[in-house]
Amino acid sequence: MSAKQDIIDRIRNATGGSSITSEIEYESINRHYRQAGILDPAARIELFADRLADYGSPVYRCAESEIAPTIAGILTERSKTGLLVPRDLPRIWLPDGFYFFRESPDYHELDSSEGVLTDCALAIAATGTIVLRHAPGEVSRALSLIPDYHLCIVFPSQIVETVPEGIRQMASFSTLPITTISGPSATSDIEMTRIKGVHGPRTLEVILVT
Amino acid sequence: MSVRVGEAATAPEFPVAAKKLVSNAQIRQNVRRATDIIRNKRARVVEEVDDWEQLRRAGHEIKEHVLRHLDFYLQQFEAACTRAGGVVHWASDAAEANRIIVDLIRAHEATEVIKVKTMTSDEIRLNPALQAAGITPYETDLADLIVQLGEDQPSHIVVPALHRNRMEIRRIFSEKMNLPELGYEPEDLTAAARAYLREKFLRVPIAISGGNFAIAETGSVCVVESEGNGRMCLSLPRVLITLIGIEKIIPKFRDLEVFLQLLPRSATGERMNPYNSIWTGVSPGSGPREFHVVLLDNGRTNVLADDFSRETLDCIRCGACLNACPVYRQTGGHAYGSVYAGPIGAILTPQLQAMQHSQSLPYASSLCGACYEVCPVKINIPEILVHLRGRVVEEGHAPIVERLAMKAAGYALETPERLSLAQKAARIAQIPFTHDGVIRRLPGMLAGWTAVRDLAPIPKQSFREWWAKRQKEPRL
Ligand code: SF4
């Protein structure tokens, strides 16, 4: 007998069940937890910024028309000459005077790069979470991971308040690869001391468009 | 089918191992310090969630629903994952899972793999099986790396090297990575691990991962982590092999909205862990080109067969019950002789092995109830412990373990603070006799246990509890 049939048989013996589920039973699961947010948009954005600050991620605020000069300012301050970007990132956001390479498929090139600039699919205020969707043309998994510096642009319309609201939006693209990011890479494995930056980008910064 | 849970079948009984460890002051101090920190962090972020109880309830109900229809959901997962280009394998036991994984790696003629934290792989002793086949596994989670390079065993399900302090870690890294000048700060040690592993992430073509949640509806897998080593393993290599216990299935994508709130707050005391990766089969032009899932039974269907303790399989491996447990905090994880330590280990390990090994583990508890209070999916561990003690007696193993068992409970009873915990515990232990007026447990065990501790008869409230409550109540 195949292992699959074996396991299925043992399960049915154990539960006395059959190979059906009950949608009614599933629907009757108690979900009295908070689903929707209660904050007004301004408070929601503040909460998101607050959570990011808690993770030690600097937040820069600017108007939509100011994205390019804001990026120029950050790069100058950080003495960077340019960043990698995903293929479909709008050109209008990129300031002159710096290089912006459309993503490189070579891991070693990503590794020796100065960092990466991306946008995001959505963000969750309650947990300070940025959600990346990895469709073709959008930021790839390697691009958002290997460089040591990640600068991410978030629009206020992309921010939801609660985790359930965030997951429901993610459900609409659930079969694409998804990464959620809440602060920079970290570990507490050594004496429970939180250290920023193990393998993912050691620095995560956010441009919050106002 | 031959179930194997790490080295549990041949490990010394709990009290024997515990006695040795309790006398190791260094380990005790490391464990206590670390668990204190996580407990406080957890308490802070759980308190701020006003719907925490509702989330726990939903988490519990979702898991119970899945277990009742596990055959259906596993097959739904298989169909969806296959449609998305994944390959699903089924493994009845540890040996079969190891064979499947070794064969997959050999088919690619690879001699190295990178691994991202999977307790399940420790359960099936995958690393020794790989090494025997000439394949070198590199653990990439920082704590797992400490355990692997230190030729040690994990002692905690979330923070496996929690029994090590920075001096010990520094010694291991400096020796094994050949870094005589390595500093002592956690930052130095973390940076050393980053440099050591980066080259492997960029080069090694096959990765092995575990999975926190497998979503039946979509065939997706979700991995929850902090360091980014998970993302490295899940997205850079050409081939990804994911080993998942059959109980890790959740019905729908939306159920993540419950578990991604419960898990990070309970596990590391964070509102959200730094990274979650969710993927479905293979995606053209991005991530692994080949994706295999190995669905593992290895005794889980034994657990499923006992209606009373089935909820053991609800566990999302957050580790909160370990951090809360006065016995674990006293002995550390190695005393449990299993990759699964602490209260969850005490109920899971013997059940996986159909109660044929590790029979002393259900006694490795003072039944104080702290584990149940913190469990994000409301597993009633104290009741299950008592139930399993009954099964140990039924199986005729009692004479071997009973004498030892008394000592196990004793570790939690050394100070007055713990005495009050034990009194609470003894009341829980009495519940089975009065519940519905039906005697469901064997009185012999409990009589013995309470007699040793001289705790019977036990009032509904101890003086201490009564006094504490009285102080809080407004006096009119
Ligand atoms: S039993 Fe509960 S508290 Fe313990 S590890 Fe599992 S989910 Fe966490």
Question: Can you offer a commentary on this structure?
Answer:
- The complex is a heterodimer of chains A (210) and B (476).
- Chain A folds into 2 domains: 1-30, no CATH class; 34-209, Rossmann fold (3-Layer(aba) Sandwich).
- Chain A is built from 6 helices and 12 strands.
- Chain A has helices at residues 3-15, 23-27, 41-54, 67-77, 107-111, 163-171; strands at residues 59-62, 82-85, 99-102, 116-118, 122-124, 129-133, 149-154, 159-160, 178-181, 186-187, 195-196, 203-209.
- In chain A, the strands form 4 sheets. Chain A has a 4-stranded parallel β-sheet with strand order 1-12-7-4.
- Chain A starts with a helix and ends with a strand.
- Chain B has 2 domains: 14-301, Rossmann fold, CATH 3.40.50.10420; 400-472, no CATH class.
- Chain B has helices at 14-22, 25-47, 52-68, 70-83, 94-107, 119-123, 126-132, 142-149, 166-176, 186-203, 229-235, 256-267, 300-304, 320-324, 326-331, 342-352, 370-374, 381-394, 398-410, 416-434, 443-453, 463-472; strands at residues 87-91, 112-115, 136-139, 206-209, 213-215, 220-225, 239-245, 249-250, 275-280, 290-296.
- In chain B, the strands form 2 sheets. Chain B has a 6-stranded parallel β-sheet with strand order 1-10-7-4-2-3, sandwiched between helices. Chain B has a 4-stranded mixed β-sheet with strand order 8-5-6-9.
- In chain B, β5 and β6 (220-225) form a beta hairpin.
- In chain B, α3 (52-68) crosses α12 (256-267) and α16 packs parallel to α18 (381-394).
- Chain B is globular.
- The chains are: A alpha/beta (210), B alpha/beta (476).
- β9 of chain A pairs antiparallel with β9 (275-280) of chain B, so a sheet runs across the interface.
- Iron/sulfur cluster (SF4) binds next to α14 of chain B.
- Iron/sulfur cluster binds next to α14 of chain B.
